[in-house]
Automatic annotation (TrEMBL):
Origin: domain of life: Eukaryota
Database matches in InterPro entries: cNMP-bd_dom_sf, RmlC-like_jellyroll
The name this protein goes by in its record: Cyclic nucleotide-binding domain-containing protein
């Protein structure tokens, strides 16, 4: 299966330092990408949320679409948290050093062709992706409940000034700073 998968990565793409693989707001990459060399930063606003390097994969969820079980674009990238709900990229992916990317499997037909020969492997990978999605969803839900509870507590105590200091320029609450504030308060 891995040999067949790697041989399907027939196209090579080169990025120079500073080049974007994807800019925030662009349609999400619907292809399977293996980083052969170099490093890429996944950035949300001005923060690097993940560094990718040799051997990392982008688009595993696209490869493993869950066969009309859902049209949720987040399934196209189950191994990342990079999508907005409309299928547009929620992040930018930018080369921080010269990169060589191997790409392929960019159409559903390519995926179906590979899947026909490796049904068991695809079933195992789909199960793995579902488990990762459930784990990530559960972690997010727990974190959001904790943050909501802390915000309510600070509002009750009329500590709005402290809370407003946590907003970043994008209007999003800096969850790390909120976590520190909650720990200080405990």
């Amino acid at each position: 299966f891995l040999v067949a998968l790697s041989s399907s990565l027939s196209r090579q793409r080169t990025l120079l330092t500073g080049d974007y693989l994807m800019k925030r707001g662009e349609e999400y990459l619907r292809e399977f990408i293996l980083i052969a060399s170099g490093t890429l930063h996944v950035r949300l606003d001005k923060h690097t949320i993940k560094t990718l390097g040799r051997g990392d994969i982008i688009g595993r969820g696209w490869l493993l679409q869950l066969k009309n079980e859902s049209t949720d674009p987040a399934l196209y990238s189950a191994d990342t948290d990079w999508l907005a709900s409309d299928g547009k990229g929620a992040v930018s992916i930018r080369a921080t050093s010269p990169c060589v990317l191997l790409t392929g499997l960019s159409s559903p037909r390519d995926i179906q062709k590979l899947e026909r020969g490796y049904k068991v492997d695809f079933k195992l990978l789909r199960a793995e992706v579902r488990a990762e999605l459930m784990d990530e969803t559960e972690r997010r839900a727990i974190a959001m409940k904790g943050i909501a509870k802390a915000v309510r507590r600070f509002k009750k105590r009329k500590q709005i000034k402290r809370l407003s200091m946590l907003r970043m320029s994008s209007g999003v609450v800096d969850t790390e700073a909120l976590r520190r504030l909650v720990e200080e308060d405990a």
